[in-house]
Automatic annotation (TrEMBL):
Location of the Phytase-like domain: 41-188
Keyword Metal-binding on entry: no
Biological source species: Pseudomonas fluvialis
Protein name: Phytase-like domain-containing protein
Pfam families: Phytase-like
InterPro entries on file: Phytase-like_dom (IPR027372)
Length: 329
């Protein structure tokens, strides 16, 4: 028993140390703010740069992705139809699948797409939270469900993740060559998963779980004395580094892509928590991220909720890269 407790304590300490936020959390500079027009169901839940196109998904639309283009002071969304084949069996337990199925008609989407990423060939990868599955869509809009390793969900659940409805997989990033795929478990517990394409199939090389942790953090002072569960709300891969959007605490962090260790963090709370941009709900609502050399796109899934200035449309922020770039020590 004592040996088991000692091992558990060491594992918990290792997880905490690997993910502890560094002391330097510099503010990000807001360059532009764009309300999104043309997403009738709203709920912008993912962003990705695919070639010259900025693409988005909605967690209430199972049949389209959206191409976003700057028009004056807005982003115009053009719906692009996708062909979704029948969904394969999910590794999630029956109870979680049933809850998602019952919620589908009410919320407006059975698949609950929560993220999008692209490879160099132009394939789009859409993450279905409801099914814990990934749909790969080619340039012609034809979709194919990836056969992810069965061990991925099993290992995640054994590590304390993917246990609660609406707190499952929330972020996705894919390597340019399409050979590695990262997934983020949202909260309670949050975590990062990695699977590799090897030998003609997706595999867990040892353990698919890079990180699993549960560490509530204090909310910003504007929300009073409360603690919010730490969260991963989106992923982006840039320069062989993994960037995590941690929306409940208004920051994004650069992490080692293989070990998930935090290297640097930056805050966007300086502008997101301004009274004019703040939402009444006591947690962050940013759920989409795309990082590039010049800056980053951060998307807000407001669910139709008005913010302080009355704006009810989805919002995308464009922020500047740090002075010395995202990859500086």
């Amino acid at each position: 028993m004592r040996a088991g407790l000692l091992i558990g304590s060491l594992l918990l300490a290792a997880s905490t140390c690997a993910s502890a936020a560094p002391e330097r959390i510099a503010p990000l500079v807001l360059l532009a703010e764009y309300p999104v027009l043309g997403m009738p169901s709203g709920n912008l839940s993912g962003l990705a740069q695919c070639g010259d196109e900025l693409l988005a998904v909605s967690d209430r639309d199972d049949r389209h992705i959206y191409r976003l283009q700057v028009h004056e002071q807005t982003l115009l969304a053009e719906a692009l139809a996708i062909q979704v084949p029948p969904v394969p069996p999910s590794a999630l337990p029956w109870g979680l699948l049933a809850r998602a199925w019952l919620a589908g008609p009410w919320r407006g989407g059975q698949l609950d797409f929560e993220g999008i990423s692209c490879d160099a060939a132009g394939n789009r990868y859409l993450l279905s939270e409801a099914r814990a599955s990934v749909l790969r869509v080619d340039r012609q809009g034809q979709g194919e469900w990836l056969r992810l390793p069965q061990a991925l969900v099993r290992q995640a659940r054994a590590s304390g993740m993917l246990l609660q409805a609406n707190a499952l997989l929330e972020g996705i990033a894919v390597a340019e060559d399409g050979q590695r795929l990262w997934l983020a478990a949202e909260r309670q517990r949050r975590g990062l998963l990695l699977t590799h394409w090897q030998g003609g199939r997706w595999r867990c090389l040892g353990n698919c779980v890079l990180l699993s942790e549960s560490a509530p953090l204090p909310a910003p002072a504007v929300y009073g004395e409360r603690r919010l569960p730490s969260s991963f709300n989106a992923l982006s891969l840039h320069g062989e580094k993994l960037f995590t959007l941690e929306g409940h605490h208004w920051r994004l962090c650069r992490r080692h892509a293989q070990r998930a260790e935090v290297e640097r963090c930056w805050s966007y709370g300086e502008f997101a928590l301004d009274a004019s941009r703040r939402y009444r709900l006591p947690y962050g609502m940013a759920e989409a991220l795309q990082v590039d050399a010049e800056g980053a796109w951060i998307g807000v899934d407001n669910g139709g909720q008005p913010r302080g200035d009355g704006e009810q449309r989805p919002i995308v922020w464009r922020v500047a890269a740090p002075a010395h770039g995202w990859l500086a020590p």
